[in-house]
Amino acid sequence: MIKVVKFGGSSLASAKQFKKVGDIIRADKSRRYVIPSAPGKRDSKDTKVTDLLYQCYDAIEAGKSYGKIFQAIKDRYNQIIEGLGLNFSLDYEFKTIEENFLAKKGREYAASRGEYLNGIVMSHYLGYEFIDAADVISFGKDGRFQQDKTDAELGLRLGTVERAVIPGFYGADEDGNIHTFTRGGSDVTGSIVARAAHADIYENWTDVSGFLVSDPRIVPNPIPIDLITYRELRELSYMGASVLHEDAIFPVRKEGIPIHILNTNRPQDPGTMIVENTCRRPKYTITGVAGKKGFCSITIEKAMMNSEIGFCAKVLEVFEREGLSIEHMPSGIDTMTVFIHQDEFMQHEQAVISGIHRAVHPDAIELESGLALVAVVGRGMKSARGTAGRIFSALAHARVNVKMIDQGSSELNIIVGMKNEDFEPAVRAIYDIFINTAL
Ligand code: ASP
Fold it and tell me: Is 291's pLDDT higher than 70?
């Protein structure tokens, strides 16, 4: 059994947290490959080491003094090393990093040092070999991650080591220039390593006990999700539920490796298991309810639209030309509506309107702003009767006026559009009907 274990920044923010992580790793021999993030926040007012590194590098680039910030970074690591009672020093590494900063080695290089240094600390603490991600995670010179090359090289390298620490978040191109993933990218490294190692499971340790059925800022004490499929997760994360980096799904999904989200501070909690597929019947009809505010709708009206061949294509071309991506597109006999992110639409508004006029000569174009979309997601909806009925009666009771309904053909989700101000009551009403008063 091989487990790849990734620990987030808050799990490694201090020596105290490191000790919890050490206990977790030592408790299971199959936890062979460890992916650390950089030290995160110790409390809500603290600054992540990654942010300190960006600040420090930006100060150098701007010709400002940087000594204080650099010292703060050193202090973070030295406190961890001391707190763990380890007998080694990062002084040589700090010196090299400072020189490279002054030689303007780049912002991505700067940011990556958080994980690099934490990886060294972790390898000393665990007694595991250290593999620099720059040697095994390949990027092209264009800064894009190279999956196939990495898979081959990393797979070979891992075959030669029983246990290793591989820092998250970065890799390098063939000239040795460092590139990073987007923020939170250590999740992606963990997934890449799990794939290359043919791991049985990818454990992602964080500071929450997995995914919740809904956002706790909207629904008080939502219940956790014990099992979710990759497809359900995609739907929910797209609609705003965030625990895991979006790109972390793809490498392991291709290999059918499950991701287990776990809490470093509460390792006894079951967490959330993310799987490719399952025949385990879900306890509730819905797996989650999430959503986002800030959409607008563009409704195009034209008599006999349905018989005009190529009508939709012409309208969509206008959006394409403006570089706008479309969220949803419900249609009627003489109308078609396009939902789009309001802030993206704003600066293209007039170009879109005139483009549509020119392309299809509509009878009218109506715009509505301040809309929210709520996604009700669940593999259980396919086999449950009356799901839509329950959603809409719950919304009616909550006095929410439904503006749009869109059920995906996979019956995995139902998207409901409404005014921004109805968003929170709608999410609460749907949670209530499916979870609190579940049949
Ligand atoms: N340290 C990086 C960040 O703060 C990457 C990570 O934590 O996953 O975004």
Answer: yes
Task: Please report whether residue 120 resides in a domain.
Answer: yes
Which residues contact ligand 1 via a Cβ below 6 A? 9, 37-38, 48, 50, 114, 168-169, 183-187
Give the domain-ending residue among 222, 253, 275: 275
User: Considering its fold, how many domains does the chain have in total?
Assistant: 2
Taking residue 162's Cβ as centre, other Cβ atoms within 10 Å add up to 9
Of 248, 275, 302, which residue constitutes the final position of a domain? 275
pTM assigned to the model = 0.87
Structure tokens that stand for 93 in this block? 């590494």
Is residue 204 located within the same domain as residue 307? no
Amino acid at site 347: Q
| Of residues 48, 62, 54, the one with CA closest to residue 14 | 48
Query: Which atom number of ligand 1 is nearest to the Cα of residue 181?
Result: 5
Distance CA 439, CA 421 (A): 29
Q: What is the pLDDT of residues 249-270, one digit of tens each?
A: 999 998 999 999 999 999 999 9
Given phi > 0 = left and psi -120 to 50 = alpha, else beta, which region is 221?
Answer: left
